[in-house]
């Protein structure tokens, strides 16, 4: 899979562009030395698949975090709740099977109270006859009119009841409608219309989920412990001694508000970034700061800091102005540091939610020199399914090398392979297979004019951890 981002070469400039203007300074161009870098993924921006144990101590309903996608099936009617037309009208319990309209995204208000967002992004609520509707577009967490208490069965946590804002429980009627008029007392049996089967069909495990899941006070201590232990000074020493020349460090937009970022994010990541720059300079490593999470989310994925998968970055001038302010903050803080090599303006903006027009407006409001950052994975696409090891290697030498050649034109932008990994969709591949596949990628990606960066330094999945790959002889730099 290929995705594209852009970097600003900060060292090209002697001044910064004002946030409110699109006037860009004239750069003094000099060719950089290609880097051999590694991403510090999962450190200052949470990605649960990299550090799943970060979520372990969330005390209650840790499987029901923000953005979790659920379906609700009536015990008595044997049908799923569905937001008619995807939202904007009633919510009925009349579907024998579940798909998009029958899938709801959670907003976690407290450990046991939630708001439910439907396919077209409205929220559950009640009309004046206590019937369940999905018409509210308010994103106010304090709006109790659309907040439901989720009551789980201790013996079967997927057997639930929902206490509605009017104090009664939601029930499915024989005509397929849903309303909140069931009393508190119930036998919770199979004949109880207020009992539903909860089915979790998707989850997000990002920065929003982990911090809101713990709550501010606990999240502060958990995240501080994570930042202080996941990446430490010895890691920079290890990288320096094993051929790495740079680090790509992921940050979220909330870092500029440290130590008191907007809820639910918690302070402390800025100090960790300061430490990283100090360690990088000590061990002669270059630093690429990557804005991995932009205001409003640029791709709806968990690493963008999203709450429930909604992509809204670039759809208003405000989100662009806010993002330029973050870049300006980072540049102002680290511009004079010898370790700073580049700042990545935004990571993996996703079309069609992010348009070329909004990207152009953002880049013009930022700076006038960019590097094309290409992310290469022989994964996440059906074209790689069924490929042999040799076919994966051939794909790198044929397709990837050709693409790089077409991008590296005379007087064109520098090219950076900002993410790649020695992993492929091949069952039972041997150590030698991975060594050959990794060597092929190092050969081809080493031709990029700005260099490359492995994803990532540390990961519970061994092939995704450059530290593990180096220590175990899979990759040699």
Automatic annotation (TrEMBL):
Leader sequence segment: 1-22
One GO process term, biological-process aspect: cell migration
Regions of compositional bias (Basic and acidic residues) in chain numbering: 182-191
Domain DUF7910: 61-201
Keywords: Glycosidase, Hydrolase, Signal
GO molecular function: actin filament binding; hydrolase activity, hydrolyzing O-glycosyl compounds
GO annotations of cellular component type: actin cytoskeleton; cytoplasm
Domain of life assignment: Eukaryota
Positions of region (Disordered): 172-191
Domain annotation Glycoside hydrolase family: ranges: 223-370
Tagged with keyword Cell cycle: no
Family note: Belongs to the glycosyl hydrolase 5 (cellulase A) family.
Protein name from the UniProt record: Mannan endo-1,4-beta-mannosidase
Source organism per UniProt: Vanilla planifolia (Vanilla)
């Amino acid at each position: 899979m290929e995705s594209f981002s852009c970097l600003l070469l900060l060292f090209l400039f002697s001044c910064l562009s004002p946030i409110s203007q699109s006037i860009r300074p004239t750069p003094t161009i000099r060719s950089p030395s290609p880097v051999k870098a590694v991403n510090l993924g999962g450190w200052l921006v949470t990605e649960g698949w990299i550090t799943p144990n970060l979520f372990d101590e969330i005390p209650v309903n840790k499987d029901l975090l923000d953005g979790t996608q659920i379906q609700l099936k009536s015990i008595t009617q044997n049908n799923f709740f569905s937001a008619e037309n995807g939202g904007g009208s009633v919510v009925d319990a009349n579907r024998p099977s579940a798909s998009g309209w029958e899938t709801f995204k959670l907003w976690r208000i407290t450990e046991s109270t939630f708001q439910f967002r439907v396919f077209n992004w409205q929220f559950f609520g009640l009309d004046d006859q206590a019937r369940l509707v999905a018409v509210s577009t308010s994103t106010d967490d304090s709006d109790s009119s659309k907040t439901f208490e989720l009551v789980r069965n201790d013996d079967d946590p997927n057997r639930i009841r929902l206490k509605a804002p009017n104090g009664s429980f939601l029930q499915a009627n024989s005509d397929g409608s849903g309303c909140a008029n069931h009393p508190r007392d119930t036998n919770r049996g199979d004949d109880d219309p207020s009992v539903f089967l909860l089915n979790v069909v998707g989850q997000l495990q990002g920065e929003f989920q982990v911090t809101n899941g713990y709550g501010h006070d606990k999240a502060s201590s958990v995240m501080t412990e994570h930042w202080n232990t996941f990446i430490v000074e010895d890691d920079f020493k290890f990288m320096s001694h094993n051929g790495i020349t740079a680090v790509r460090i992921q940050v979220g937009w909330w870092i500029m508000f440290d130590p008191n970022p907007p809820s639910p994010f918690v302070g402390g990541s800025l100090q960790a970034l300061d430490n990283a720059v100090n360690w990088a300079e000590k061990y002669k490593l270059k630093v690429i700061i990557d804005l991995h999470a932009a205001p409003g989310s640029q791709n709806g994925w968990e690493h963008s800091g999203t709450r429930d998968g909604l992509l809204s970055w670039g759809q208003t001038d405000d989100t662009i102005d806010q993002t330029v302010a973050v870049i300006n903050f980072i540049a102002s803080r680290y511009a004079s540091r010898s370790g700073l090599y580049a700042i990545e303006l935004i990571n993996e903006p996703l079309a069609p939610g992010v348009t070329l027009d909004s990207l152009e407006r953002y880049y013009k409001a930022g700076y006038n020199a960019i590097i094309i950052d290409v992310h290469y994975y022989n994964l996440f696409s059906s074209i790689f399914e069924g490929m042999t090891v040799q076919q994966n290697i051939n794909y790198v030498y044929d397709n990837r090398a050709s693409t790089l050649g077409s991008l590296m034109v005379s007087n064109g932008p520098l090219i950076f392979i900002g993410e790649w990994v020695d992993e492929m969709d091949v069952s039972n591949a041997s150590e030698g297979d991975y060594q050959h596949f990794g060597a092929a990628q190092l050969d081809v990606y080493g031709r990029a004019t700005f260099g490359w960066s492995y994803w990532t330094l540390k990961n519970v999945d061994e092939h995704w951890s450059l530290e593990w790959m180096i220590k175990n002889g899979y990759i040699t730099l």
